[in-house]
Fold these 3 entries.
Entry 1:
Amino acid sequence: DQQVKQNSPSLSVQEGRISILNCDYTNSMFDYFLWYKKYPAEGPTFLISISSIKDKNEDGRFTVFLNKSAKHLSLHIVPSQPGDSAVYFCAASSNFGNEKLTFGTGTRLTIIP
Amino acid sequence: NAGVMQNPRHLVRRRGQEARLRCSPMKGHSHVYWYRQLPEEGLKFMVYLQKENIIDESGMPKERFSAEFPKEGPSILRIQQVVRGDSAAYFCASSPGQDSPLHFGNGTRLTVT
């Protein structure tokens, strides 16, 4: 049972435009959500997180939006840069903690110069 | 400040052999986590340890898998009598506490022949 779903395996975006990556979850106990970025042959790198008490969190070019009623979150990257090309994983946990994350299957983002 | 160090990066084992994967957390981090990524899937939680204690092993297969984080030295993930289905990338992560994002190592890619 996939509790965190990233339904788009891949996404291509022109450099300078906005990239929007989506994530859906089914477990109502999840209250903390994170986005990780992964380059080939490397481990995931933390990007940004959001707690369920918020609906938006922003950090530079990255903004995460949370819609609790729809059990949906999205990551916006603007403007997109070539270095943003990577696989992006959505992750979720309960008890506002990091100790047991449930990951989605990832979306491969390609930024076209 | 060195990141999370995992070794070896690549490990090849024949069916029935033992695999030992090592992880040295970041300096100052006392929380260690192991995740496994099967091909075309997201990372799946295996076990969460603190020094000399297993806190949560709910993601560990019941047989053949064990993990430890001794008082001195790296954390070890041990897989006995490996089978082809154990072939995966194994990622270790560390954090200074439950409220801090996880820092991942670059993983050990295990191939069972």
Entry 2:
Amino acid sequence: EPEVTQTPSHQVTQMGQEVILRCVPISNHLYFYWYRQILGQKVEFLVSFYNNEISEKSEIFDDQFSVERPDGSNFTLKIRSTKLEDSAMYFCASGVALNTEAFFGQGTRLTVV
Amino acid sequence: AQSVSQHNHHVILSEAASLELGCNYSYGGTVNLFWYVQYPGQHLQLLLKYFSGDPLVKGIKGFEAEFIKSKFSFNLRKPSVQWSDTAEYFCAVNGNSGYALNFGKGTSLLVTP
């Protein structure tokens, strides 16, 4: 069964550093998403990406964040100048069309120290 | 403001007990409704979804949910839970023209033998 894969599963970084979280969406999917879940809180939408551009983003997704689809398979989330409060589980998801189910990856646990 | 509420944060049941998890939403316009499950150490998986049609939706593993438009609710049910249903359950909503899933805070279900 095709699945969304995320690497790494756990990333520890020092405050102020840049991190890149990587995702390989399901191959025939066209819509890509990043969500995050801070420990003890709900899953929050960050950004959606379609046709090589951001289609929607939340208030959380400020200039510190960027997304990219550098080739035909990867979908990355870059977090610049990380802060302690960026520590969270980051989930990538993909969908075949708008308003269909999103398939989630296993997440990357980001710890900023 | 758009919101999703899950009323039960922690539920403990014995095997074979019946389950009902509440989900209410506050959204304008047409919505799509989802229940996701996260088993320990695994990714979010779709249990069931409602877009239109029959408001009683059947999903995987014997789960079902009923969309009651007048109550803005989409409660999840299972007549007889098993130990393997121990997991975190998330209700999610998106507007018909939106990309983002808005998640509830989740309900942690523990099924005891």
Entry 3:
Amino acid sequence: DAGVIQSPRHEVTEMGQEVTLRCKPISGHNSLFWYRQTMMRGLELLIYFNNNVPIDDSGMPEDRFSAKMPNASFSTLKIQPSEPRDSAVYFCASSPSANPYGYTFGSGTRLTVV
Amino acid sequence: DAKTTQPPSMDCAEGRAANLPCNHSTISGNEYVYWYRQIHSQGPQYIIHGLKNNETNEMASLIITEDRKSSTLILPHATLRDTAVYYCIVRAYGGATNKLIFGTGTLLAVQP
């Protein structure tokens, strides 16, 4: 089991550019979560999917952020246009449905917007 | 979900037991206590969870008071690799929404 796989590990981009973060959940896990972590705000839940359907996107900061899950093995988080305040570590996690102790987190993507 | 209160930081000597407290005075009858930890630069990692009985696994023990208003995570023999931020989270198992909300946690520093 390779765990939750995120790519890229690091991303540096210029303000105004589009950024796409990728996540491959653990096979068989049907819930997927995107979190953002900063020093100021800690770990924030952005959005989560159940069976590829977005269930709660109340944590998505604004319209510049969008997330998709076209199939059970892949999800993307897109920021367009990116801003310096979007700099953070973005984590993806997956779990069997309705199983909070089954969360497995990826290694994260460190995003720097200059 | 009920809120939790944890000390912002704690120290522990290597080889000694680390006891991390958590207050959750507004916990409901159907809410579980979960503990996760985050080692620097890594994603959070599940440790243990419980409802009202004490629980033990290969990583830690969880002691929940009889009134369930507080709990303690115990790492029996802390090592330097246990230095991390520990999060106590309370939520209903199998609730309408399957999501974990993280607070600020306790930074445990294990000293050599």
